[in-house]
């Protein structure tokens, strides 16, 4: 799905016309947020966002998985496997599964951390625990009440914020903003900009941490693209952010092609990209998630093997504050369960 442009404009006739439907959707979503979920028996950290589309959840999940391992924890990621055909629960295996089976994000994450895909997240808890998980790390699912969360960390883009602040379909929000902020335990603001300042101020005013972070390109990716002109393509929530990240890293972006989020390239689209790149002496570059989507159980198609994945990691301005927050959440979660 491509996000409608009016979602990120302050005033729109279409947004206004859709507000009655948005009010109904928002009321249902707000009630759903209040439902009590399954106690997993071990700490559950959820990484989510307030709106549809991309904000940087996957890099945040990877950063938290790394931190948890540094704390001698065994994290297992639990996700619904968006756009994958398998309902699960199933552990993602890159040797057996392709993106069509489990979704692009789980396939990408599984290269770094054990991942369980389960359409019903509650059903996935037992499998995650059987993999010796000491912490379940939920990728998305903030608005889903099936599993109780010990903490929800919300990712927001500093440049885009929450758009026009309206609930779907009048805007990008998955539920009324106030209801979502009330259930937020920490906010992760990614990048530079002021569109998230209002939300940040509210969260900080509630005494909750606001953590600033930025994408840092991988050295190997930079080396592979140094001195080359590239044709970049992406089918993520915010392709423009990816193209901007390339330019900010000093990459010569001669062309950029955007596709809808999670879009599986057709043979014609792939052939068009290859022809344009070869005809203009350009190197094809895309995101790790997009490259994962091209992978099947048999590996990458021949044409995609020359595509350079531009890898980034999420770096926190105050890593100690994140560590302190996570440590406190884990201690409290275990103390509550010990007393109960």
Textual characterization of the structure:
The chain is α/β, with parallel strands linked by helices and 340 residues long. It folds into 2 domains: 26-73 and 134-215 and 315-339, Rossmann fold (3-Layer(aba) Sandwich); 219-310, Rossmann fold, CATH 3.40.50. 37% of the residues lie in helices and 19% in strands. The strands form 2 sheets. It has a 9-stranded mixed β-sheet with strand order 3-4-2-5-1-6-7-8-13, with helices on both faces. A 4-stranded parallel β-sheet has the order 10-9-11-12. Helix 10 links the parallel strand 9 and strand 10 (252-258). The longest helix has 21 residues, at 319-339. The model has no long low-confidence stretch (mean pLDDT 93).
Overview in brief:
This protein is of the alpha/beta class and 340 residues long.
Q: For the residues shown, what is the average pLDDT?
A: 93
Largest sheet: 9 strands, mixed
Share of helix, binned: 25-40%
Tally of discrete structural domains: 2
Counting copies of identical and different chains, the oligomeric state is single chain
Uncertain residue segments: none
What's the SSE pattern?
Answer: HHEHEEHHEHEEHEHEHEHEHEHEEH
- Do you know the CATH architecture of the largest domain? 3-Layer(aba) Sandwich
The order of strands across the largest sheet is 3-4-2-5-1-6-7-8-13
Structural class: alpha/beta
Q: Rg, please?
A: 20 Å
Overall shape: it is: globular
Please indicate the percent range of residues in DSSP E strands (runs of 2 or more): 15-25%
Number of strands: 13
Fold-level CATH name of the largest domain: Rossmann fold
The CATH first-level class of the largest domain comes to Alpha Beta
N- to C-terminal distance: 44 Å
Number of helices: 13
């Amino acid at each position: 799905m491509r996000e409608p442009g009016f979602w990120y404009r302050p005033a729109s006739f279409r947004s206004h016309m859709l507000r009655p439907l948005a009010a109904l959707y928002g009321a249902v979503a707000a009630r759903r947020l209040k439902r009590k979920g399954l106690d997993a028996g071990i700490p559950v950290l959820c990484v989510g966002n307030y709106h549809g589309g991309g904000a940087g959840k996957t890099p945040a999940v990877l950063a938290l998985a790394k931190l948890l391992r540094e704390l001698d924890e065994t994290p297992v990621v639990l996700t619904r496997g968006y756009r994958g055909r398998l309902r699960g629960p199933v552990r993602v295996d890159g040797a057996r599964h392709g993106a069509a089976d489990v979704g692009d994000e789980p396939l990408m994450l599984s290269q770094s951390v054990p991942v369980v895909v389960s359409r019903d997240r509650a059903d996935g808890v037992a499998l995650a625990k059987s993999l010796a998980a000491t912490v379940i790390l939920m990728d998305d699912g903030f608005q889903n009440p099936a599993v109780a969360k010990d903490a929800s960390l919300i990712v927001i883009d500093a440049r885009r914020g929450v758009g026009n602040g309206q609930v779907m379909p009048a805007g990008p929000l998955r539920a009324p903003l106030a209801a979502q902020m009330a259930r937020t335990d920490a906010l992760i603001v990614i990048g530079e900009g002021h569109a998230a300042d209002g939300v940040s101020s509210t969260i900080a005013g509630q005494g909750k941490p606001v953590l600033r972070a930025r994408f840092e390109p991988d050295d190997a990716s930079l080396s592979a693209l140094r001195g080359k002109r590239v044709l970049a393509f992406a089918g993520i929530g915010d392709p423009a952010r990816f193209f901007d990240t390339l330019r900010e890293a000093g990459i010569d972006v001669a062309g950029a092609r955007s596709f809808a989020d999670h879009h599986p390239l057709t043979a014609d689209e792939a052939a068009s990209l290859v022809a344009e790149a070869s005809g203009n002496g350009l190197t094809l570059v895309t995101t790790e998630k997009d490259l994962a989507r091209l992978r099947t159980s048999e590996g990458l198609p021949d044409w995609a093997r020359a595509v350079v994945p531009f890898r980034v990691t999420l770096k926190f301005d105050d890593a100690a504050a994140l560590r302190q927050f996570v440590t406190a959440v884990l201690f409290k979660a275990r103390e509550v369960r010990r007393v109960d």
